Amino acid sequence: MGEDRMDMMVVREFDPSRDVVGVEEVERSCEVGSSGKLSLFTDLLGDPICRVRNSPAFLMLVAEMGGEIVGMIRGCIKTVTCGERISRRVKNNYSISNKPVPVYTKVAYILGLRISPSHRRMGLGLKLVCQMEDWFRQNGAEYSYMATESDNHASVKLFTGKCGYSTFRTPSILVNPVFAHRVTVSNRITIIKLTPPDAELLYRRRFATTEFFPRDIDSVLENKLNVGTFLAVPRDSLRFGLWAGSDHFLSDPPESWTVLSVWNCKDVFRLEVRGASRLKRTFAKTTRIVDKAFPFLKLPSVPAVFRPFGLFFMYGLGGEGPRAAKMMKALCGHVHNLARESGCGVVATEVANSEPLKLGIPHWKMLSCAEDLWCIKRLGEDYSDGPVGDWTKSSPGLSIFVDPREV
């Protein structure tokens, strides 16, 4: 009976003119905790492909049975750093430069796999993944990866058990609420907003060898959803208090500095926590009222997460020096204040577990995911290993670059 129903299933490209309602119904049926517990609902604001449409190449597939949409999957392709090699310059038979340069690969990302609860355990998920991977291969992707919660056993079992993926990286998702009061930023630190060209120069010079760094970083920084790139330096480090550009800065940087960029997810999707008791809602509202009435107390109020809220996502976090963690905390405070002015409920980021700057990123454990899980698969064997070898077997670095276009 199951095989007969599978024969009736059609997998095709998403059609925005007729599929939006059906896709939204499947999304609602797949809400986390829909059995009466706390659930996180995502409102895609009427655009089912909003989470991939800013990528260089993207596709959404839907599974249809008897004219009813019963599943979907999204995927995108980009070129990223998968490792580094040493570029040697030789002059008069002497090596004068041993500079690490990025090694790029074309990688695909799977997200938003959803199967209607009434059509699970029929092989639909596997079929959708396989057809998406066919599109990846046709477009030259060398690897495919996906991200899920480490405790999402069904998803992990599908990808690692049936689809041939292997566990790869375990970054941390850090979420901090936006309070009713402004966060005080140290007056010993100067925060500079960089222009997109300045930000691109800084990222390519200092972070291009970071794993998953997108080769088209310029497209990310110039996107309308990018709020800006911000640099934190000691207050007295700028000559005459003037910014002379990233090229000048990098030629003689201060001992400690940090940088990050901000992506406006609020205009892409909204989140909402559902299933909370009246007591929890009342408590959260009370903390906000008290915080707003007495901002000088700096009380940690609970944001209005029980109605639709937006978030700012911080990416491209980096820096160096003994005070880098403190400067990162200042940058996060600055982003908090920007998010507050924009009406966001939370500020979030995702970093490698071993990220040195992690200590400087404010977050609430109750809102954060201690460990996300990324799984990866090599899509073919008919290409050169190059200087990296098989990326799926490589050791993790200290940092990772999370592309905001895939949040």
TrEMBL record:
Cross-referenced Pfam families: Acetyltransf_1 (PF00583)
Keywords associated with the record: Acyltransferase, Transferase
GO biological process entries: auxin-activated signaling pathway
Membrane-spanning residues: none
GO molecular function terms attached to this record: acyltransferase activity, transferring groups other than amino-acyl groups
Boundaries of every N-acetyltransferase domain copy: 9-192
Top-rank taxon: Eukaryota
Family, per entry: Belongs to the acetyltransferase family.
Protein name in the entry: N-acetyltransferase domain-containing protein
Organism whose genome encodes this protein: Populus trichocarpa (Western balsam poplar)
Phylogenetic lineage: Eukaryota, Viridiplantae, Streptophyta, Embryophyta, Tracheophyta
